[in-house]
Amino acid sequence: MSRDPDMESVQRVVEELQPGGEAESVWLKMMLTFITKHLHPLLSGSALSGGSVCPDDLCVCVVKKIQKNMAVTHSLPVSYRPLSVSELLSKQHLACVSNLSWSTNQQRAWEKEAELALPGQRALPRVNLLLIGYLSGGGGDLWLKDTSGSVRFECLSPSPLWLNHLIFLRHWNYIPHNSTGQDGTQTEGHVELVGSPILLFPGSEQGLAVGPREGAGLSGVVGVRQAVGLMRKRTHGQRLSVWGTVGSVCPLLVVSGTSFFFFWLTDDSHSLPVLVKDSSRLCWSRCLCVGQSVCVTALRVCVLQCWRGNNILSVTERSQIHSNYTHTKESAHTDTQQDTPPEQMMSHGDGDDDGDDVYEEAGSERVILQSGVRMKRSRVISYQGTVTEVVSEGAGLYVIDRKVGLCLAYQPNLRRKLREGDSVELHHVHFLYRPCPDFPPSMLCTCLRSTLKVTSFSRVGGSSPVSTCPGDGVLPRLLLEKNVGVSEYLWACHLSSQLAHSLLPRVSRQQCVCVLSWKMMEDVWGQGENGRRDIYSEMLDEPHTCPLTQYLVVPAVHQYMSVSELTESLRSESWSSLSLRSLLPPDGSSLKSSEINSKLAWSCRTLTSDPQKNLQSGDGLRQRPLLLVGVLELPSQSSDHSLHLRDRTGAVACVVTETSMVEEEEQTAVFNTAWIGCLVCIKQFTMVTEKSIQSDFPSYQHLDQEKYITHRHCRVYLQFSLDHVYMPSPSVAMVTHLQQKGVESGGRATKRRPTEDEVDGAKKRRRREKGPAHSASTSVPVTTTAVGGSSCPCVSMVITAKDKEGVAWKNLGAGLEDGEAGLTLCFSMRAAVIGPVVSWSQDPKNGPMTDSEADAGREDQVVLVFSGVSARWFPVLQPGSFYRLVAPNTQDQSLLNGCDVSGQSQVQLHTDSTLQIQSDWRFNTLTRPLLLHTSRQALSPTVLSVSDVVDCRSELVCFQALVSDRISLDNRTSDSAHTGVRLTVCDDTGTSLQVYLDFSHTPYPPGLLPGNKLLLSAFQRKTSRSGGVYCKCLPVSSVTVLKLGETSSAQPPPAPMMHLGMWAFSRQQRSIVGQVKGHMVCFLFLQLQWICSLCGSLYRQSCSSSECHSTSSVFDSRARLVIDDGTGEAYVSFSGSLVRTLLGLADSQWEGLQRAVKVRGHVRISPREPSLVCDSEDPLLLYLACLCRSEVACRQLSLTCRRSTNQRAEETKRFSRGERDFVTRKTLPVQLTCLSFH
């Protein structure tokens, strides 16, 4: 049936309203058509309509109401057009505002005020639309509907009297919802009513504002105090009418399909809860306002079993609510009980800038648990303010008044999400001070007892939604399930927002970022489930208790940083905080130019992730431990050969160790390829910043002039052990490895077992790898089917690594593009083949070793050659480990057979076959095969100690050593930042050795730091002319970091105690550094002089060299003496500040001596030749001679010394007795250089 109006109805409307022109006549016809089609069917037969209603009468009423609310009442709003609900939802995709009574100036003033209140935001655009509909309730919400559909209706102060009425909205906003719901459906928008609606009904002139005396004629009404007494005497069939002030309105809950809410009625001294679960009265939750005086009728007393069987008042089907109620018998109290908040309302404007201190004092009841961790009690307050930032809509996090945080996660999700610019009023909200350092210090958190009411809708459209985790609504659901504290929840929310921008896309596609953040929170905080949340006690108990009553305060909780943010901050800090003088020894002012530039050539700064351990390193800016999250990957750049930690922002090189499979308590270099591709959370690590400087400083005084720095380079990398790593999302290979590790340990608990969620996630990724085309029928009879691999055919063989060469740049004869040199990064590894080549229908990865892969009698050797891209496997291939080498996308078993080296006829070659590793081949670490004979498992070369290297006679050695010192040997003619390094290494006995590394043709390896334990393979052992032993790297040498030390405070083992008589025989005692205790016999000489800092010539008033024009000088002090320990003598040389310590002079005395020497430039005395001193009348020489013979100088000495490496062990001496000449060989005293005093 057509709903278009007939001509008679149009004529009656025109005659009644008398339009002023053709435009108004057309507009009236449009209005009549709209009302006839969309509104009149809703009122036909309705009791509110008073019987049948004609469309033209309804149209006249509507137009008159519209005219009455216009700014200009003598004309019709022809620029406005009516809009149906379905058209609003389907066509209005932008937020907008409509106000019939606005003039142009009023609109501009409104826009300006809105944009000034929230800088950077744009006011809602105005539309000329008329919205008319029928208001109804359902499910606790209000709905505005017409015949085309319904839209959710939001109002600031709704009244139950508005329900089931036809209303016209004079001033309203429409907010479309562009976000997608949790079920994947597109959520619809809602209408916001500003002010009160206009009731539309023929003949009705009353508004919807309820008078102050509404409900005054009710009888039998009791107050809260009386109702509390009547509840104790429960009578069957009794119905109560109770009046009081609304104390709080709990949120609407849905439990087991039943919707309900509680609200509290209070008087001066008593309060009682009221249960509302009748579906027709659930909309009361929108109508009740805290502080409002109401009367509720027909309440019954019932027992609430969920609340320990307590009595409670419940709304019945006959219950009515009367707002702004005034009790006639207590009129003296009516004025004070109307719309008066029960608590003092706080806002941001109530305090000054020092409000944080006030808040801290207000909620400061706390209990100290342990160092840096406190348990505090929250304070319940009321607050009003304006939302200025939406931190996370799904997680329920906002900022009010730009300073106060708001967390709504402990309440059910709001149907209408808060927007920037909303004014809110909070009652019974918990105030917390510094629950999480990533959020504002002052936080407000709502529980199930709290009341949140929007008092003014936002006037701005809000900022564009930030790209966050699409499932951020998961966090409140996890909170409800796990019931953790608010501090932990806030930390997880902040981590989730950070990871949404930094995780690699492939990780965020496979895993929900919020779930990953929650797992990391449980690992970092060590928090599990806190038990089931009692919602009824939380809403009804007195005194009030809830999860927000107490909260943790942990100022030093971990702080997440992205990889790029960390590396950039380390690089900037390395140069901004660099003090060149701090890189020099305490006596740096006495160093010559060459010595200064040599010591500045390389320096290192190490910081741990825990700032408490960096107090001596000057890291005062960072107050919290750091947390890194990323994926472990093989190096992608051909010039690097260490593992990388990568996220979306960047990558950083890492020196990684893990627990050895042979000795569970020993650390070794990373060998397990299952770590590759794992998402890891690193809580304990060391940040290393190596700085290389090429400079030409003429003297110590010029260090503040950067123009003398010709080149500088900074390198940043990390050091950590995999024992301090948490895997929120292990790879399929890692899950397989952990399961096998549990089986091999005989069922014992391992350090890290995969959880059910991790196993399920790995199974899902495995199914994605298999793809829909995978089936068991794809395997052929001659192949083996692996469980858990990807569905591509492949061949494999099992090997064990014996030894590997170092990575080096080699010319393989293949030139690169653009005319570059044909140098390729490559290395080789010798391995033993365990069994035959096996074909697979799918990748076996690191699955258990099968019987077909092992051959007990096979002893084949193969040399694996890695070059180019395949050289990236270098950091995870370690001698003694077992690997499965997989060649994918082929069934050709001959591909893994090595090629023999061809030779001439009748020539027998004793060499192993070689196998060139292709770029797409993969290595998978296998747990140690138990079926093999024990002797075949010990295939790694013999590893010596430093003492063994010193005493052995082998030319090539492989040994472990602890780095105690490092000196850069840069070549200034090279463009490379590192061309050579001299390491001083030692073992547990203190025996030391010097190792020389040349990086002119090899990449510079990270981790060569004091405190780290290294494995040095295939190094050449050499003996100096004086008999000292040192080691030198060869093109095949390899350096591996086995164990990480405390590099920031690395203290090497003390040098061994040496007897001088034995140390003189270099063949028996080859140690370079040792401790010496003995008595000083005499001074051989003492020399004090001022020399030129540039050329080293003597400096008096100027440099004595005619070719040098330097104007700077340094003080040079040297001494040599004889000490005796009872087994022999030694000549010990001292220099620099050690001479002052030797002479026992104070700083002021030493400075005075320098001034006295500066006059003449040079002083040298030989106390063993007293005639040269006694005959002199120079007071300075006499003073120095007395000083050398004083008891202070001639004392027992305890020194650490280095033996000279260019000393002759013996000397030949001739002498005559009578007519005969004699030749004898005399052992010379050992020549030592003092390093330090004890």
From TrEMBL:
Annotated Gene Ontology cellular component terms: CST complex
Pfam family, one: CTC1
Key word Nucleus present: yes
Annotated InterPro entries: CTC1 (IPR029156), CTC1-like (IPR042617)
Cleavable signal peptide: none
Gene Ontology biological-process entries: positive regulation of DNA replication; telomere maintenance via telomere lengthening
Keyword terms of this UniProt record: Chromosome, DNA-binding, Membrane, Nucleus, Telomere, Transmembrane, Transmembrane helix
Family note: Belongs to the CTC1 family.
Locations listed in the record: Chromosome, Telomere; Nucleus
Compositionally biased residues, Basic and acidic residues: 753-762
Name of the molecule in the record: CST complex subunit CTC1
Entries under PANTHER family matching the protein: CST COMPLEX SUBUNIT CTC1
Any GO MF annotation of the entry: single-stranded DNA binding
Region (Disordered): 324-357, 740-782
Stretches that traverse the bilayer: 240-265
